[in-house]
């Protein structure tokens, strides 16, 4: 049997070269995460510390709708977990 890795690097480079990176939409940004974090902390400061996830998501979408058309659920979950891990909630 030959080396199974033969040609893998060339294949990787060909795949990467074939992707038009400028046309792939950005799903998340540092600005989005910063704003989500600020709003979650603001909710905490307002005394709203127990919320169902769907209520949190909808509240954030309402508060940030003028800045961001849409953000995905995974962004909110990821940030919620990060803030929770740091005991900010």
Q: Which residues sit in consecutive blocks of at least 5 with pLDDT less than 50? A: none
Mind summarizing the main beta sheet? none
- Rg from C-alpha positions? 20 Å
Beta-strand segment tally: 0
| Helix and strand element order | HHHH
- What portion of residues belong to β-strands? under 5%
- The overall average pLDDT, rounded, is 78
SS field, number of helical segments = 4
Q: What's the shape?
A: elongated
Q: Find the structural class using helix and strand composition.
A: mainly alpha
- Amount of helix: 55-70%
Distance between the termini: 56 Å
Describe the structure.
With 89 residues, this protein is mainly α. The protein has a domain at 26-85. Helices cover 58% and strands 0% of the residues. The chain is elongated.
Question: What's this entry about, in short?
Answer:
This protein has helices at residues 8-18, 30-45, 53-64, 73-85. The protein has 89 residues and is mostly helical. The termini are far apart.
Reconstruct the topology from this structure.
Layout: H1 8-18, H2 30-45, H3 53-64, H4 73-85
Helix pairs in contact: 2-3, 2-4
Descriptive keywords:
mainly alpha
